[in-house]
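User: Please work through this fold.
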Amino acid sequence: MTAAIYHPSLYDRQRFHPSYWASNVAAPDYGSLSGDRQVEVAIIGGGYTGLSTALHLARDHGIQALVLEAGAIGWGASGRNAGFNTLPASKLSAKAVFQRWPEAEARAFFAAQREGQALIYQLAAEENFDLQACGNGIFQVAHSPGAHAELAEEGQQLARAGIPNRLLSASEFASVGHGGPDQFGALHMLEGGGINPLQLTYGLAAAASRHGAQLYAHSPMQQWRKQAGWHELITPNGTVRARQVVLASNGYRDSEEPLALRNRVLPAISNILVTRPLSAAQWQAIGLHSLAPMSDTRMLVSYYRRLNDGRLLFGARSDTWGDPRQDGKMRAALEQLIRQKFPACGVLDSEFFWRGLVAVTRKMVPTWGRAPDDTSVLFNLGCFGSGVNTAAWLGRAMARSLAGQALSANENSAVFRQLPARLPASPWLQRKGLQLAYLHYALQDRLQ
């Protein structure tokens, strides 16, 4: 078992955090597991990856699949992220990806990212659910002149990878994005956009269930053992026996897992607020014109988007404990970041604030495959808070692997293959390492 490293409230599956998304989307009712089941594939985790795996197994391959979710469906990152269906799911620059892996493998990785982005819209169309999609692409906003120069090189490398983009000067970006003292131009990746992440989660869940997958909420896997070729996943009120298992918990790795996968993921806390609907005068003062998602180029990134109903969503990382008694402090910190970015906005009344965990690794790019110590277990690790475009694609790839299909060059890219280096086993050391990394990132941001 990988130890939970943050405040216990972040792992409390009985409480669905009061996000903006949860306030305007009706939650489906999936009951908990009662009794024993036997299936070909059991899936641990009811987020994008787990639900997509179940959907594709049932719909495309006719394989029995069962999903165990410890909380409500959509309880984790899949239900409370910012809804950026954007590229890439990596902390590495495109240049670094090309330097670290052979040209063909790097190109296959970026092609997979584009496939994943398109798959989100494809699944919504095929399974008839609404994403509340908006905006065109994503803007990476330079926070300094030096950052703008780096974006110019990043744009060239992304074009090399086949990702269409354009570089904008500060004045050009002000006319289509936003102005203010905190922007020095932007790189516009032209594909993807914003969605309602909980709509995507519930859409995948409904589709998976409709095609025959079994979904169980509030059914935490408390013990995992293997006997005579069968995995036995024991929950409070029943046991699932399966020939193969998919571990799709990503950042919420506080349950049992194979030894080879332990301490490979460092969860990081992301904080998000959403304002009340803003007036036309407030939007004019802010000067944010586009509905496309945006993020700045700081190492301690801020990300934001104008929502369809006239609200502003704003998020950032920094907290390294997650005590709900500090919610007011974190909320105030986000509000200060908004004033820094949009000084003419005045005081904005935020209506929603929530936090959750994203998954980062030392490898800096997502990983998926079969566990080295048990090839009947498939897993995914690390989407770096940008998993909307990647997680569902990983679910489809794992379904194909489970069905015995030959993987495509994109699915088999070497970028996905090597396991990330282990982290210290001590939760205290993991938190201290993250704190030191944040201090280092803050210094880099100031120097740039």
User: Anything to note?
Assistant: The CA atoms of residues 278 and 310 lie 6 Å apart. The chain has a mean pLDDT of 96.
